[in-house]
Design brief:
By secondary structure, the chain is an alpha/beta fold. Among the domains are: 187 residues, no CATH class; 71 residues, no CATH class; 38 residues. It contains 27 helices and 20 strands. The two termini are 50 Å apart.
Length: 756
């Protein structure tokens, strides 16, 4: 039983390479390294021991560190050399990079020796039962270097000199030079040994046909017909004269293996191509180690969004809203006085709170900054302290260093799905409060609503053809429509913000101004249709948006704030590298861990996320996408999940969405009979505090907040019963202050972690 995991050995490869290589496992015969894209491909081997895996990773990391991409490519495709030249190059370059990686990590020498010993026992080099000393030089050299120069193998004086050159090669240019010398030596040697299994026999036959004449051919044909030996004897000659000449030539040669045709056929020698049989055999036998029963690894890239199609700028969004409000005023549904009242009521309820919150935020920032102040002595003497030198050594001038605060920004995503209709009014109010706070304290922000309504997209872009919103390349996850509609941002002028604020408050009222489920005054604009919850697509598209946002605003810290009330829509297909009939039929291959290990990948940022087979539901995609987004943008993600206000629906929502401090659901952390009671307790906590912290994977922080009427902010009033006393006033003020915090739960919870 192996005492290692694929993940641990992948990490070992990264550590040895001293860089964050991209490691990919696949059902390939041998490990290989892409030096240009810095990708190390490792096979899925069966019966793999630790030392064998160390050999594999150490060897390929050696290539990663020391083999130049361009030099390797140029040498391999050199048309002046035969096809087998690559095998010769393999032997010399392998010896060089293994020497250098062992020099960097001496502990690998033992692993290499033991691992190659295992491969020898398994006869990976095809030398079992053979005398290695009778084989050609390149084969003996290959076995000798792979044994870490430990086997006792015979070499001639000239070969010893070549071996010393192999031992001393340090650069790639030296590898090519020494390989050329070995290749030329092996060409003569193997031609003499008549080791020409790869030689074109038709060329030999054509030469001998020209030399022996028709009579020899007839004699051979007759002999073949008579003795039944066929083509095996064809071309050897049958006359006694030829046999006599052959005997004379053999007497002159001290070696029975010499091919005397060499001296009389220089053209054939030039065409002769030497081989490294042991290297070829090793490549063939590597397939024996493949674990055919193992799951294949499927690496999926995230597609790139076309932001011109995905994003609707705020000017267009508010233009469509204003047109609707104007039509409603002209139709007599409400008047300008009603509009002013909506704005006035909101400001009177929230403006003072926002100002107070901004002051508290600045105080927190100042307190944290003060805590980080450092006082250091300089080398200059403080002349005001010279008089105290006899009893105080501290006479040097001091300097106070106050660290600069980090700049922070946020992007907010509002779920515009149909299920949000009951919570949209309160959500808009909370978000507008957050926007006002950010403007007050100069925090850059942008607010988007997201959905996948194509009819709304058509209005936004004045176009019926929405086309492909994401790239659709092989190996990418298939993602469909998503629309990011910009509502507010920190770049707006005061006049623009006031205008857009008015539109947002009217939109809020259109969700709340109802009687018996019928709107009585403000009707929602047609451009504000609610649809589905394409959260995965929205976060994928948001990656480039966030990177641009950070760059434009020169941010140190950035956050993505998501306000939603349900699971993300399912994303479950990808584009295979090689399309199949099934993938063509269904518009992609299904993402499943039933027969594959699924890995989300981004080679540019060295990101990999392995999907947990136990989470093959809607969660796996959104989790992987969030982990990728956080790594790609260096941002945090805050989630605000709006729950039903009361009853079993609230408890059921907590049961399905709540994660404890260990990242486990109630189903995982408690016995079945305990889960419902635990959900009830958490529901009580949520009702008391109007917020419940959960540790949902993918988020930095995840909050449950009550929906419905509980989501709406309340009028702030200090209530005191009976005679007003100092203690009553103090307690009432503290209760009042806490009530303001929980009534503006989104902004209050968010700023807890950003005062840096």
């Amino acid at each position: 039983m192996s005492n290692y995991t694929i993940e641990s050995k992948s990490q070992l490869a990264k550590l040895m390479a001293t860089e964050n290589l991209t490691i990919q496992h696949s059902k390939i015969q041998t490990a290989k390294f892409d030096p240009k894209n810095r990708v190390l491909y490792l096979p899925i081997w069966q019966d793999m021991t630790g030392v064998l895996y160390d050999l594999l990773t150490g060897h390929e990391v050696g290539h990663a560190l020391y083999t130049p991409a361009e030099g390797w490519h140029d040498a391999v495709v050199d048309k002046t050399k035969g096809k087998s030249f690559k095998s010769f190059l393999n032997v010399v370059e392998d010896a060089r990079i293994e020497k250098k990686i062992q020099r960097k990590y001496p502990g690998l020498k033992s692993s290499f020796t033991k691992a190659y010993g295992e491969l020898m026992v398994r006869d990976f080099f095809g030398i079992k039962g053979r005398d290695i000393n009778t084989m050609s030089f390149i084969n003996r050299l290959n076995i000798y270097t792979k044994s870490q120069y430990s086997l006792k193998i015979a070499f001639t004086g000239e070969e010893e000199k070549l071996i010393e050159k192999v031992k001393n090669v340090e650069s790639w240019d030296e590898v090519v030079k020494v390989t050329n010398e070995i290749y030329a030596y092996s060409k003569d040697e193997q031609f003499d040994m008549n080791d020409i299994e790869d030689f074109d026999m038709e060329d030999i036959q054509e030469y001998e046909d020209d030399d022996s004449g028709e009579e020899s051919d007839s004699a051979n044909e007759g002999e073949a017909d008579e003795e039944g030996e066929g083509e095996d004897d064809k071309g050897k000659g049958s006359s006694s004269e030829n046999e006599s000449e052959q005997e004379d030539e053999e007497e002159e040669n001290t070696s029975p293996n010499v091919n005397r045709d060499k001296e009389s056929s220089p053209a054939i020698e030039d065409q002769f191509e030497p081989r490294c049989e042991t290297d070829e055999k090793y490549r063939q036998n590597e397939s024996m180690l493949l674990d055919e029963k193992s799951k294949n690894f499927v690496y999926l890239n995230f597609p790139k969004a076309d932001l011109n199609k995905v994003i609707t700028p705020y000017k267009k969004v508010h233009e469509l809203m204003e047109k609707s409000w104007t039509d409603q005023i002209n139709g007599g549904l409400f008047n300008e006085a009603d509009v002013q009242k909506v704005v006035r009521d909101f400001k009177s309820k929230n403006e003072k709170y926002v100002s107070l919150l901004a002051k508290e935020f600045e105080m927190k920032k100042a307190a944290k900054s003060f805590a980080k102040i450092k006082v250091s002595e300089t080398g200059d003497i403080d002349i005001n302290k010279i008089a105290t030198y006899q009893f105080d050594d501290n006479i040097f001038r001091k300097v106070t260093m106050v660290p600069k605060g980090k700049s922070h920004g946020l992007i907010l995503l509002l779920d515009c799905s149909g299920s949000m209709s009951q919570n949209m009014g309160g959500s808009i109010e909370q978000i507008v409060i957050l926007a006002m706070f950010c403007r007050k304290v100069n925090i850059p922000f942008t607010m988007y609503g997201f959905s996948d309504s194509l009819s709304m997209w058509t209005r936004d872009h004045d176009d019926d053809n929405y086309g492909q919103m994401f790239s659709d390349n092989p190996g990418e996850i298939r993602m469909r429509a998503v629309s990011l509609r910009e509502y507010l941002n920190s770049k707006m002028s005061n006049a623009e913000f006031s205008r857009c604020l008015k539109n947002m408050l009217l939109l809020k009222s259109s969700y709340e101004d109802r009687k018996n489920y019928i709107r009585t005054k403000f009707y929602r604009p047609d451009s504000e249709q609610l649809s589905n919850t394409p959260l995965t697509q929205a976060i994928c598209a948001m990656k480039d948006v966030m990177l641009n946002f950070r760059k434009i605003n020169n941010l140190d810290l950035s956050s993505l704030v998501i306000v939603h009330d349900g699971d993300a829509d399912q994303v479950s297909y990808y584009n295979p590298i090689v399309p199949t009939d099934k993938s063509t039929q269904y518009g992609g291959e299904s993402i499943t861990t039933y027969d594959s290990n699924v890995i989300f990948l981004d080679s540019k940022i060295k990101f990999q996320y392995k999907v947990n087979p136990e989470l093959m539901n809607r969660d796996y995609m959104i989790r992987g996408t969030m982990e990728w987004f956080r790594k790609a943008t260096n941002s945090k993600i805050f989630g605000f999940f709006i729950t039903p206000g009361t009853g079993r629906n609230l408890q059921s929502s907590i049961l399905n969405q709540y994660y404890d401090e260990k990242g486990k659901t109630l189903h995982e952390g408690y016995e079945r009979y305990q889960t419902w009671d635990k959900a009830k307790d958490l529901a009580k906590e949520l009702k008391t505090n109007k917020a419940l912290v959960s540790n949902n994977p993918g988020y930095n922080k995840f909050f449950f907040i009550l929906g419905g009427k509980d989501l709406n902010t309340e009028i702030d009033e200090i209530e005191i019963e009976g005679k007003v006393t100092t203690n009553k006033l103090k307690n009432a003020f503290m209760k009042f202050n806490k009530k303001r915090q929980v009534n503006r739960v989104i902004v209050s919870k968010f700023i807890e972690g950003i005062a840096a």
